[in-house]
Amino acid sequence: xxxKLSFRVLSFILAILLAISCESDxxxxxxxxxxxxxxxxxxxxxxxxxxxETEYVNGPAxxxxxxxxxxxxxxxxxxxxxxxxxxxxxxxxxxxDQAWVPSETWSALFNEREAIVQEGNIxxxxxxxxxxxxxxxxxxxxxxxxxxxxxxxxxxxxxRVGNLNxxxxxxVIQRNETDxxxxxxxxxxxxxxxxxxxxxxxxxxxxxxxxQSCIGQQIIESGVIKEQVLIEYGRL
Length: 236
Prior knowledge:
The protein has 236 residues and is mainly β.
């Protein structure tokens, strides 16, 4: 009688442990799915951005250009563990009334650990799971540029980008170095759940320091300031 009772108790405990394990796995899957929503990847998805770029070559008189960039997922290829690598066609145009001109092809893969975007022939880890405030990872782990720690700054916050309002945005700080004598290297990207990349900012500038009169004056000698802002997105 005691043996039967012990068996029943053991069976009951095992059933509870199994249920908890399944629930845990299910919840983990839900979290992973939500994190993947910050970079949705499907054939036909497109994003159109307004680009403003100022390039400095020999002094503070920079040359500014404005144009539009379209990123469209045109194909997908099977990858490991049931995931897919998505082909992204980049096209540009000088204004909204001009035709798109193909410029280059990138690719993207979002697996159970990370989102990898290959820009030309260079791969970057754009997001690393699980996403959380202050989460840090090496964005250059798959390229030869050397370690560069990316960090989640803004996390799951409302944000306005250009003329668009969003309720759930994260900021990836790729680099944030400012020096009033030498220059700045500031790069960040903002992703929105269900939308993807909505903003990218790059400021890599070198200040004049070749004579005493300009040191510390923040006079730009060379570099680039570039801002990419989402203006339209959807699925064809």
